Amino acid sequence: MSTRFRQQIDDSILDRAAAVLARQGEAKTSVQDIADAVGLSKAGLLHHFSSKDALHRALSDRLDQLGDALLEQVRDLPAGPDRDREVVAVLVDAALGHPGLVAVMLLPALRGESPLGGHAPIEMTTDVVFRLFDDASTAASADRHVRLSVALAGLAVLSLATPDEARTTAWRRSLITTCSDALGHRRPSASVDDLEA
């Protein structure tokens, strides 16, 4: 099996495992639960990741990589409505491709706990979310915090709903518009296509 093909399989396993962990939490999720979700036997899953700890470490590493990739896309944008819209678009696109990973990334900022327990500390994932929006978690106003929480909660829940691919792609524009509206950036004169530019 080529290294690239194996990496694609491992990435798919990690995303599906992340979705299970986001729904159930680390303490309530067994290796068998994850194996069932990814369509492998327990032994088959352990062939890819030798233990639950190895799976968690791989998830934590993958979350770091995803966070870095997302931050790179918006790093040079100044704080404000344009950056918020671009962050929303970047998160929506990431959620369409990696719903489980994005849910695990967003949920700690909303729940106050990491679905990965100590393997991906809440500070790590929450820090990435606030850095994406160029907000310091303690400096954001109460209104901003509520708006951000509503936008991220909606995106996390829809990520976990994992509708079929055709519907998900069709939802992209609505997701971007709705999350931007939740952040208080409604632009009635602008089309959704403007948000994607």
TrEMBL record:
GO molecular function: DNA binding
Claim: RNA-binding is one of the keywords in the record: no
HTH tetR-type domain span: 7-67
DNA-binding region: 30-49
SUPFAM superfamilies according to UniProt: Homeodomain-like (SSF46689)
Domain of life assignment: Bacteria
Xref: InterPro entries: Homeodomain-like_sf, HTH_TetR
UniProt-listed Pfam families: TetR_N (PF00440)
Keyword Iron (UniProt): no
Keywords associated with the record: DNA-binding, Transcription, Transcription regulation
Name of the protein described by the UniProt record: TetR/AcrR family transcriptional regulator
Organism expressing this protein natively: Nakamurella leprariae
